[in-house]
Amino acid sequence: MTSPFAARAAASRISAYGGVLVFFALAIAGLFFVKWSPYYAKGFLAAHNHSLGGSIVSGKLPASPAVGLQAGLDYSIAYMKAIWQALLLGLALGAGLETALPRAPLHRLFAGSKGPLRATAFAIPSMMCTCCCAPVAVGMIESGVSASSALVFWLANPVLNPAALVFIGFVLGWKWAALRLIVGVALVFVVGHVAARFVSADWRPRGLAMPPDDAKGPFLAAWARAFLRLAVRLLPEYIVLVFALGMTRAWFFPAMTPDIGHAFWLAPVLAAAGTLFVIPTAGEVPIIQVLQQFGLGSAGAAALLITLPAVSLPSLAMLARTLPVRVIMVLGVGTFAFGLIAAGAAVALGFS
Q1: Which end of the chain, N or C, is more open, meaning fewer C-beta atoms within 10 Å of its C-beta?
Q2: Are 310 and 283 in contact (CB under 8 A)?
Q3: Which residues neighbour 24 within 8 Å (Cβ) at sequence distance 6 or greater?
Q4: By C-alpha distance, which of 177, 149, 145, 176 is closest to 161?
């Protein structure tokens, strides 16, 4: 006769296996629907048209709309239409990491010197933008995954996105794709590792999305509670920042002319703008293409190519809910620095 203890242990194992299966089923189905299938079709369009359409910042014009509430509303609507499905998936996966996956195997998977490499292997097919991936990184950190692996995963998602590299190759040219890949790999591992060193061993995230008492009961109910807590923590500030950046985007991107496009001061200005501004996945490609048509030089284009996808003010604010402020500063400054490195490399290599 089976003892009550054995029955409870068996039920616990079944629940754990069920959580893992549901998590990976959601990840695979969600990524196929939100990322893999649309990007597969978009790749053929990019190859045929050598364009991804107008820039989300300025359309097909050399300048962004004037600063104002309407500019913020228009940008917020366009941006949210592009990312809302991926954002919901990111929130669901971030919550699932805390409730559906057993923590001990998760820690082992991303521990040690191979942890960041494994994180990169998971990030490459994920292909999320920096904001949609932020809830997943938060879930990783709050589940006890090493900061180094979580930050490498977060940076690798947008920077090493294989679909974006293909779009860059077809639209901007394959030398630009090679520059993005080489500088991007360095950014992911250098900035990720340096930033992680500023997370002390005794650091504990503030305001966990899933308090211990809420982890009891059926895993789907716990997952739903974690999803709601994560959304409440991360989304209000995120939405406000997206609106503010869209409203003031004319301050980030000067009206482009050939004289301005080749000015010495433009590369650091655009590196700073790209570090702060928020775009959907691969949004940097049409932004750069449109600005190049009006005179943007190689230094400014390279700075945007690296900084625009890597981080943004809203995504950094999301991580600031979980990580120390000094880590957020390293991530921002490090991204800006690699934008300048890419700009210098483009000029030295004679990119046009």
Answers
A1: N
A2: no
A3: none
A4: 177
Rounded percentage of the chain residues whose pLDDT exceeds 70: 91
At residue 45's C-alpha, the angle toward residues 42 and 50, to 5°, is 120
* pLDDT digit string, tens, across residues 83-114: 999 999 999 999 999 898 988 889 999 998 89
Q: SS3 of 296, please? A: coil
Q: How far is CA 49 from the centre of its chain?
A: 26
User: Do 293 and 285 contact (CB within 8 A), yes or no?
Assistant: no
Tally of residues, the chain? 352
Across the chain, mean pLDDT equals 91
Its domain, for residue 237, covers 4-348
Kindly report the backbone phi and psi dihedral angles of residue 59, in degrees, each rounded to the nearest multiple of 5, phi listed first.
70, -125
Torsion of CA 115, 97, 191, 284, to 10 degrees: 120
Give me the mean pLDDT over the 241-256 stretch: 97
Cα(234)–Cα(237) distance, integer angstroms: 6
Helix (H/G/I), strand (E/B), else coil: 310? helix
Count structural domains, the chain.
Answer: 1
Closest CA to 171 of 85, 282, 69: 282
For the cut 90, the answer to whether the pLDDT of residue 15 exceeds it is no
Check whether 75 has a pLDDT greater than 70: yes
pTM, to two decimals: 0.92
Is residue 161 very low, low, confident or very high in pLDDT (cuts 50, 70, 90)?
A: very high
Enter the tokens of residue 154: 């977060």
- Contact assessment for residue 137 and residue 153, using Cβ atoms and an 8 Å cutoff: yes
Q: Are 144 and 103 in contact (CB under 8 A)?
A: yes
Give the amino acid at 117. L
